[in-house]
Amino acid sequence: MIFDVDGVLLDLTPEEEDAFFWAFAKLHQLSGLSRDWDGYRIRNDVEIITEILETHFGRSPSPGERQAVIRAYLSHLANGIDAGRLKPSPIAGAESLLDDLAGTLKLGIATANLLEAASLRLAACAIWEPVKNCAFGANGGGAKRQILARAMADLALPPDRIIFIGDNLNDVEAGLANGVHFIGFSEDQAKCRYFGRCRCEARLQSSSGYAETYTRRTSPLSRKETAPKDGWSSEPICAAAHQALLAAFCHSGDRRLQRQRFPLRAVDPAHL
Fold this sequence. Notes:
The protein has helices at residues 14-28, 45-57, 63-83, 94-102, 115-124, 144-155, 169-178, 189-197, 239-250, 255-258, and strands at 2-3, 10-11, 89-90, 108-110, 135-136, 163-166, 181-186, 202-205, 213-217, 232-236. With 272 residues, the protein is α/β, with parallel strands linked by helices.
């Protein structure tokens, strides 16, 4: 099972966001930079750093110029966490979820955050250990689908044995591109409606993280349906529910469960 990080295991705090942009102010006196992560060409820390520097210099940055920003950011982030100025915030229930799954599944992360930053933030919340053996981030560039592909290659499992949990539209696209099972998690109702229209195999929607409920399909959509009607049921999140979720998506040899799978389908966000 591969997790996105921001919005799935951690909330991105304003102070952590500030730490990323602090490096540009420190080294290049740049301020007022866009915090709309989806507004950049590629939602990936390395790619965003490159784009910002490219816009500033009017040319492609050198590897050294890009690396200087990365070093400044990581140093500032680590110092802030050590001093208690920056306090990464875990999604409620994430730690217990990982504990429940760690003995059953191979776990990993595929995040657009720099891996060094993700490890610092997850470690501060005591949730780095369960995912560290298959951890992939922005390092090496590329969109989320490419980061997920690197994690999948490391797991060396076929796509139908892999579950990806994400919270964003680029996560849906990554799941589609790589042919894995996808579970959408978000506290944002608009995103959850999108997940439903993409025929996600499950959605986790809650106002209190993983501690509340998840919903999964009880019946497949017909070919003519563009959105689910009443084919969702809700259950408490608990160890037993986790195991039921795993059974539904992991045991590819079970023909009965295979018939319950609902493949991802591309949906135009404009139709939301």
